[in-house]
Write a structure and sequence with these properties.
Blueprint: H1 5-13, H2 16-29, H3 34-58, H4 62-69, H5 73-109, H6 115-132, H7 135-160, H8 164-169, H9 180-188, H10 193-205, H11 213-246, H12 256-262, H13 264-267, H14 269-302, H15 311-330, H16 335-359, H17 363-366, H18 373-398
Helix pairs in contact: 1-7, 1-10, 1-11, 1-14, 2-9, 2-11, 3-9, 3-10, 3-11, 3-16, 4-14, 5-6, 5-12, 5-14, 5-15, 5-16, 6-14, 6-15, 7-11, 7-14, 10-14, 12-14, 14-15, 16-18
C-alpha cells in the first residue's frame, strides 16, 4: 500500500492552530488532557474513513454527493450557502493563520531576512504547487513536510524526556478545573469539517471502477488510520513537550509563536530551531491543504468540476490562498472573518457528520459498501459529542 490521501488530512489538521492549542493544553494542564487526543484521533479515523469510502465506492466527493442527493431546491440552496460559507470562506480565513505560522517559523530560523518577505514567498510556493494540478506533485511535497514535521516534534519530545508514568496517567479521562474550553479546542482542532470534503474529493478523483473496490477500501482505511494516528502522535509530542517545559511555572502566555524561543532554556539552543522548523512545516502543509479543501467544497456544491487539474478548480484554490496571503501580509485583523467561519463551522460540523453517516448507510448510493451495525453504534457517541462541541462553540460566539 502507498500512504498518500490520509497524509493530506494529517497535513491539514496539524497547523499553527493545533500547535498553539496543544501547547496551551500542556502548559496549563500538564498531561491531564492526553485522553482528549486519543478520543479525537479515534473519532477522526472513523469519520475520515467514511468520507474516504464514499469517494472510493461512488466516485463522488462529499459536496457533490450533498448537491446531487438533496432534491428540495430550498434545502439544496441552504446547503450550498452553508457549505460555501463555512468551508470556502472559512478556509480563506484560516489560511491567513497558516501563512503567518509558516512565516514565524522561517523568521525564527533566519532572523536576518525581513519578515515582510516570508508570507508572499510562502504564498507563491503554495500557489505554484496548487496550480500544477497534479496529485503526485502535491502529495509528494506534503509527505516530505509531514515527515519533517514528525521528526522535528518527536525529536523535541525525546529531548524533553517526559516521565512515562505521568504520560500514561493522562490517558485516564479527567477534567481539571477550567479545562473544558481547552478540551473542546483540542477536539475541534482535530475533527475538522473541511477535511471530510478534502479526503472524499481526493479519493473520488482517483476513483476507478475497474479496480477491486474492496481492496482499495482496505488500503484506504489503513492509510487513514496510520496517517491520522501519526497526526495524533505529533500533537501528543507538542502537548507533552509544553507540559515538561511550562506546566507549574510562571511562563506567561504560551503560543506557537513564542514556544520555540521559550524551549531553549530546557532543551538547549538547537531546540529553538527544531521547533521553528516544525512550526514552518505545519504552516506550509495547512497552507496547501486549506485551499484544496475549500475548492472541493465550493466546486462540488456549485456543480463545477472537482478535478484538481481543472482550471476553474485551481482558480478557486488560488483565490482562497490569495485572500489569506493578503490578510497575513497587510497585517489585517482576520478576527471578524474567523468568527463568522467558526460560527458557520459550528453549525456545519454536526449537519455534515449526520449527513455523512446517513449517506454511507444508503444502499442506493453505496451499494454493498454501507456501514456495519457495529460501526453505526460506535459512531453515535461521537456524533453526540460533536453536537455538544458545536453548541458550546456557537453559544460562546453568540454570548
Amino acid at each position: 500500500m502507498r500512504l498518500g490521501p490520509g497524509l493530506l488530512v494529517t497535513a491539514a489538521f496539524i497547523g499553527p492552530g493545533t500547535i498553539t492549542t496543544a501547547s496551551v493544553a500542556g502548559a496549563n494542564f500538564g498531561f491531564a488532557l492526553i485522553w482528549t487526543l486519543l478520543f479525537s484521533v479515534v473519532a477522526t479515523i472513523l469519520l475520515q474513513s467514511m468520507a474516504a469510502r464514499l469517494g472510493v465506492a461512488t466516485g463522488l466527493d462529499l459536496a457533490s454527493a450533498l448537491r446531487t442527493t438533496i432534491q428540495t431546491p430550498i434545502f439544496k440552496a441552504l446547503a450550498a450557502i452553508l457549505v460555501i460559507s463555512a468551508i470556502g470562506i472559512g478556509s480563506a480565513a484560516y489560511e491567513a493563520g497558516n501563512l503567518t505560522g509558516a512565516s514565524l517559523g522561517l523568521q525564527e530560523i533566519m532572523p536576518s531576512i525581513s519578515p515582510i518577505l516570508w508570507t508572499p514567498l510562502i504564498a507563491i510556493l503554495s500557489a505554484v504547487l496548487l496550480y500544477t494540478g497534479k496529485h503526485k506533485v502535491i502529495e509528494g511535497a506534503l509527505i516530505v513536510l509531514v515527515v519533517l514535521m514528525s521528526l522535528v516534534f518527536i525529536s523535541t519530545l525525546v529531548m524533553a524526556a517526559p516521565p512515562l508514568g505521568e504520560v500514561l496517567k493522562g490517558f485516564i479521562p479527567s477534567l481539571p478545573e477550567d479545562s473544558l474550553t481547552t478540551v473542546l479546542a483540542l477536539i475541534g482542532t482535530t475533527i475538522v469539517p473541511y477535511n471530510l470534503f478534502l479526503h472524499s474529493g481526493v479519493l473520488a478523483e482517483k476513483h476507478d471502477s475497474s479496480k477491486n473496490i474492496d481492496k482499495v477500501i482496505k488500503e484506504t482505511n489503513l492509510d487513514t488510520s496510520i496517517s491520522i494516528t501519526l497526526g495524533g502522535i505529533i500533537t501528543l509530542a507538542i502537548l507533552s513537550t509544553a507540559s515538561v517545559a511550562f506546566y507549574g511555572t510562571d511562563a506567561g502566555k504560551i503560543s506557537a509563536a513564542n514556544m520555540a524561543v521559550q524551549l531553549e532554556p530546557l532543551l538547549g539552543g538547537m531546540a529553538h530551531y527544531f521547533f521553528a522548523i516544525g512550526l514552518c512545516a505545519a504552516g506550509l502543509t495547512s497552507a496547501i491543504t486549506a485551499p484544496l479543501a475549500g475548492a472541493y467544497a465550493v466546486c462540488g456544491m456549485l456543480g463545477w468540476s472537482t478535478q484538481m487539474s481543472n482550471t476553474r478548480f485551481k482558480l478557486v484554490a488560488i483565490v482562497i490562498l490569495v485572500f489569506g496571503a493578503l490578510v497575513a501580509s497587510l497585517g489585517l485583523d482576520p478576527v471578524a472573518v474567523i468568527i463568522f467561519a467558526q460560527a458557520a463551522n459550528g453549525l456545519l460540523l454536526p449537519i455534515v457528520t449526520c449527513y455523512l453517516v446517513w449517506l454511507v448507510n444508503q444502499k442506493s448510493v453505496m451499494k454493498g459498501y454501507t456501514n456495519s451495525l457495529l460501526l453505526n453504534l460506535v459512531i453515535v457517541p461521537v456524533i453526540l459529542l460533536i453536537f455538544g462541541l458545536s453548541l458550546y462553540k456557537l453559544s460562546n460566539l453568540i454570548f
